[in-house]
Amino acid sequence: MTAKGLRYIGIAAVLVVIVALSSVFIVREGEYKVVLRFGEAVRIYEKPGIKFKIPFVENTMSLPKYQLIYNSNPTPILTRDKKPINVDHYAVWRIDDPQAFIRSLKTVTNAESRIGDAVYNAVRRKLSEIEYGEIISENTARGDLNAEVTKIVADVAVNQNYGIEIVDVRIKRTDLPEENKQSVFNRMISDRQSIAAGYLSEGDEESRKIMANADRQATELIAQAEAEAKKIIAEGEEEAARIYNEAYGKDPEFYKLYRTLESYVTTLQGEPVLIVPVDSPYLKYLIGER
């Protein structure tokens, strides 16, 4: 064989290799492989492996099978009470129908643009129904809001036959524009101070009620104790009188002597001058008579 013939054979072999390599492609885990013929999707492969296509006529493109996350830029939105807020969000989505996806959206970039528009419209509509204080309050409806927005965007994707599934949509932040923050913060502080003043007033009123009730109970207890004490004293005095009477009744003469001596103690304090008849019975004990 001549050198020229060998050269032709070598060229033919190279061409065969090129054609063979151009007709083979690999489907990897976690991707859809779309075979395009003149820009139209003719076949879609989902399972991993080695596949074939018509060289120079068909080409391939890859689409992700796993979940994707789309993050939005902060967007100004008005609440029901006309408060401008900057909202950003993220959406979790996946391609579940590659054929419909290629036909309607073609690329992931286009899909994220449509998702962003749908989420923005849904968030703007829902936040326009809510006042700013409800969004930032402790008892926020943000959880319900996220679920409602997710459903709205998912319905749009189904109705438009995008070939995608909206897994979840979440609002990340709802911030005021810088020029409005201070006025809103001042109003929030004023509201909290008003609430605190209300709590303090209620506490003072409750304190007065408790103290008045305690004073009333204390007065009642003291009155009961004093009445009980007077009763006990009276009973004691009555018992003492009974004992005295019983004791003095046994010896009237001694009782008379005792009472006279007691009167001396009172009468003779300070050594007074007494003018009393000498035969007065009152003096008989002083002068030694019996």
Folded structure, characterized:
With 290 residues, the protein is α+β, with helices and mostly antiparallel strands. It has 7 helices and 9 strands. A hairpin with a 5-residue loop joins strand 7 and strand 8 (84-95). Helix 3 (108-127) crosses helix 5 (142-159). It is rod-shaped. The model has no long low-confidence stretch (mean pLDDT 80).
CATH superfamily of the largest domain: Band 7 domain
The CATH topology of the largest domain is given as Tetrahydropterin Synthase, Chain A
Which structural class do the helices and strands define?
A: alpha+beta
Q: Main beta sheet: strand number and arrangement?
A: 4 strands, antiparallel
Continuous helix count? 7
CATH architecture annotation name of the largest domain: 2-Layer Sandwich
Mean pLDDT over all positions = 80
Task: Tell me how many strands there are.
Answer: 9
Order of helices and strands: HEEEEEEEEHHHHEHH
Number of domain modules:
4
Indicate the overall shape: rod-shaped
Low-confidence stretches: none
Distance between the termini: 185 Å
User: What is the helix fraction of residues, given as a range?
Assistant: 55-70%
- As a percent range, the share of strand residues is 15-25%
Report the CATH C-level class of the largest domain. Alpha Beta
Radius of gyration: 54 Å
